[in-house]
Amino acid sequence: MDSSDLVLYIVVATALTFDFTNGFHDTANVVATSISTHALSPRSAVALAAVLNFVGAFISIEVAATIASDVVEAGAITPTVIFAGLIGAISWNLITWYYGLPSSSSHALIGGVVGSVIAAVGTSAVIGEGVLGKVLIPAVIAPVAAFVIGVICIGVAYRICGRLRPGAANRGFRGGQVVSSAMLALAHGTNDAQKTMGIITLALIANGNLPETGFEVPTWVIVTSAAAIALGTYTGGWRIIRTMGTRIIKMDTAQGFSAQGAGAATILASTHFGFPLSTTQVIAGGVMGAGAGKRVSAVRWGVAGNLVIAWVLTLPASAAIGAASYGFVSIFGPGALGPVLLSLAGIALGLGLFAQRIRQGQPVPAT
Amino acid sequence: MISLATIIDGKALLETVLAAAVAGVGITLAASTAIYGFATFAEARTDGRFIAAGGAALLALVASLAFVGGIAVGLIVMVSG
């Protein structure tokens, strides 16, 4: 095994760690509305999300193709560059998890990789058209679309079921929410797990293990990415559950169903066309739409504003950490020493944050 | 200089938004109609209005089929790429 293979193994392990943190971080987005309306208990909601995240990872590779082919020039970068980008994404995910901010794992990943590539090669290796046309513009349009669809959905639900006895309507929409939760988890798995598949595939191309032309994701990459995101989802992000589930709006079951339906439909449609969305942003768009469709003042816009600030910070912050990580790694030359040292530092930081968070307790009881 | 129009795949974006809207609203419409049908069926049966109950049951059944069918079609489209 030569030095470049060792770096590749570290990249694969780091990408799967990112995938785990993505599932861990985004669990809240998928399950919060079901828990908030008592359609599902926290533990069963998380278990359902984990299983369907795993299944979802197998149903498409369009987003993986976009990540591997349309963001940076695979031929111009090395696995070390991708490693530094991943460190940027994971670090930002951990920081926002620690502070309970549901920022975008996807934007952290793309920001980290772009920052690292700029630090290593310059802007010439960044595919500006791809980043703008396939990532940034859909990133703006998708949450707005989910918001509008959420407004329409809750209008339809209230128009049809508004005069029913509350008990009957609540029972019905609770049942519907089990289905919409499942669809949302599936959507999350298929869009987010593919980003890791795309990154690992990009590293395999950069290392010469796969050809640059004829994009193909190896089966072992699909299976390991699916398992990592499912495990992360099951492990759960209880702190963020509280933010997403109760602090944006107080929801009834019809709103929960509408929010999840709008989010799932938007993510699945975008995945089909290969747009690597922020599932966090889309789901929050659906939640706010379902809230505003009932009563605009029902949405706690101050909390929603904080989420927007976290999202705006994500790309530049993760890019800066990615660039700094590359700067650190490059001090030790092209071998594996830099990635190994940075991995050890990252593990120590992650364990430290986990230990501190565990000492402070879980905000939502897992019943 | 590259214009925005050449960078953005407007057709794919528009299709994405339309597909999401049709799926999201369609599923909500079907689910809400099914819930309305089941609730009305239960109420009418309790009151002894059997014709109304039959109509509501039919509505609930059709809407439930549309709900399940819509989800199945969506999944098939996703899997078939």
Descriptive account of the structure:
The complex is a heterodimer of chains A (about 375) and B (about 80). Chain A has about 375 residues and is mainly alpha-helical. Chain A is built from 13 helices and no strands. In chain A, about 80% of the residues lie in helices and about 0% in strands. Chain A is elongated. In chain A, about 60% of the residues are buried. The model of chain A is unreliable at about 365 (pLDDT under 50). Chain B has about 80 residues and is mainly alpha-helical. Helices cover about 90% and strands about 0% of the residues of chain B. Chain B contains three helices and no strands. The model of chain B has no long low-confidence stretch (mean pLDDT about 90). The chains are: A mainly alpha (about 375), B mainly alpha (about 80). The interface of A and B includes residues 138 and 173 of A.
Q: What attributes does this structure have?
A:
A: 367 residues, mainly alpha, elongated, disordered C terminus, B: 81 residues
